[in-house]
Amino acid sequence: MDSSKYNLSAQELQTLSSKAISAKAAAYCPYSKFRVGACILTQSGEYVIGANVENASYPVGTCAERVAFATAIVSGHHDFKAIAVASDTKPPASPCGMCRQFLNEFTTPAFPVYMYDSEGNYQVKTMQELLPDSFGPEDFAGERA
Question: What pLDDT, in 10s, does the model give residues 55-110?
């Protein structure tokens, strides 16, 4: 797949993928054993990683994508270029519904989501493809102070 289609250089995509794959090692998943790593590339060229963190009360756990985005947001980043998500599955796992809505809050419909499998192969989809007919901050623009 041509990374330039999404305004990423080959080097940016390589770094993004390797950091997402490496981030799986930080996952805390003693219950599901389902490791997920994520890495966001900001528009300023910084990489922010995340990994899933489970809890004995399953709904309390946090997915890798949300960990990465929350870390980026509280670190002052608001403009993003792409995200990579890596799992130990084949084919690659896509972000869950909750993560899709969470990512939608901070991205555009054309934002690319690279999904890596256990062998480093990937698929890429845009947020529009992952969450069609979505709603986001723009839908509340008239209601926010």
Answer: 999 889 999 999 999 999 999 999 999 999 999 999 999 999 999 999 999 999 99
Task: Tell whether residue 29 is among the known ligand binding residues.
Answer: no
Type of residue numbered 35: R
Domain ranges for the chain, please list them. 3-140
Q: For the full predicted model, state whether its pTM sits above 0.90.
A: yes
Domain 3-140, CATH homologous superfamily name and number: Cytidine Deaminase, domain 2 (3.40.140.10)
Active site residue 65: yes
